[in-house]
Amino acid sequence: MIEPLLIGKIRIENPLILAPLAGITNLPFRVVCRMGGAGMVWSEMISSRALHFSDRRTKDMVVFDPGEHPIAVQIFGRDPGEMADAARFIAEKGADVIDINMGCPVKKILKSGSGVQLMREPDLARSIVREVVKAVGCPVTVKFRLGWSEEEMNYLEMGKVFEEEGAAALVLHARTRVQGFTGLADTNAIGRLARSVGIPVIGSGDVSDGEGARRLVSETGCAGVMIGRGALGKPWIFDEIRAHITGTESSNSPIFRLDLVQKHLELLLKYLPGRRSVGHLRKHLGWYSKGFPGGAAFRREINWLMEPGEIVALAREFLGLPNNRNGETETG
Ligand SMILES: Cc1cc2nc3c(=O)[nH]c(=O)nc-3n(C[C@H](O)[C@H](O)[C@H](O)COP(=O)(O)O)c2cc1C
């Protein structure tokens, strides 16, 4: 029922994939999602223009952990030369797949003429894919939407363009730009795209449990399923979905979950030194603590703390985590 997915030469045993989420799918979260059963992970989007100007912060985003491969790194921009340079730089750093963003509906990105705006400029979109494919030896994919609006749906034409230019797989977030994140993803469209191209199609939109993933694959014939918002506070969702689809045991247990949270906290402190982890700690602990008794008070408390060490200490106490991998909790 779930077959391994081939993106060019990259084989993904379990095609349940972490979606790119700006500000969220950084290295620490990607590693814990792989531990939680994701067969592959996607980076947050990276600006080709910022790389062109050697922006330090952006370069720092192009760092991988041995435990997270296979990884696709997503780039955005509108200059084919800059996009090709960015792809080359990232591929040399060890990305397994380069993905091109043609789906972002955020105003700031549209103003710069990238994201889903490119679906309105098919010739430019074509040359971006062509130049990026020429620039790298690894597979290139494109993530896009149904089109700008219901009246301007051109995903089938664009899918063909990307395939002609050498894309190794396509990811479709089955909504229009006008829809943003509202309404429901149109799963029929994922099926139509999958039938109209000869390369694998990965479906994205609204999958948050095993039954949703199973239905998407069986109804559309898509080769992979992306999970975005469903993984927030639940990096173990991938293993749950795999177990549901294959009818096998899930390794998911309270201990397994706490181990992932523990690992996530450690990686945030390791890879985002100083106070750079604070926002991420608050955000993820906010999701992890949802539904826990006393969760709201815990979230209020960590929002006042400015030191990563203090936040982690409070989180460990709240979640009953050991203070270190060998140690005991402060509360016993
Ligand atoms: C907070 C947030 C950030 C996102 N960032 C990106 C991004 O950087 N690149 C991209 O292609 N899609 C991005 N998306 C879209 C997701 O990858 C995905 O296609 C969409 O959320 C639908 O899937 P879901 O229902 O599983 O979340 C983002 C979505 C959200 C909610």
Short description:
With about 325 residues, the protein is α/β, with parallel strands linked by helices.
Question: Would you give an account of this structure?
Answer:
It is a single chain. The chain is of the alpha/beta class and 332 residues long. 42% of the residues lie in helices and 16% in strands. It is built from 14 helices and 10 strands. The strands form 2 sheets. It has an 8-stranded parallel β-barrel with strand order 3-4-5-6-7-8-9-10, surrounded by 7 helices. A two-stranded antiparallel ribbon has the order 1-2. Helix 9 links the parallel strand 9 and strand 10. Helix 1 packs antiparallel against helix 11, helix 4 runs parallel beside helix 6 and helix 9 crosses helix 10. The radius of gyration is 20 Å and the shape is globular. The protein starts with a strand and ends in a 13-residue tail after the last helix. The C terminus is likely disordered. The structure holds flavin mononucleotide.
Low-confidence sequence ranges: 326-332
Spell out which ligands are present. flavin mononucleotide
**SS element count, helices:** 14
Fraction of residues in β-strands: 15-25%
Question: How many β-strands, per DSSP?
Answer: 10
Distance between the amino and carboxyl termini? 45 Å
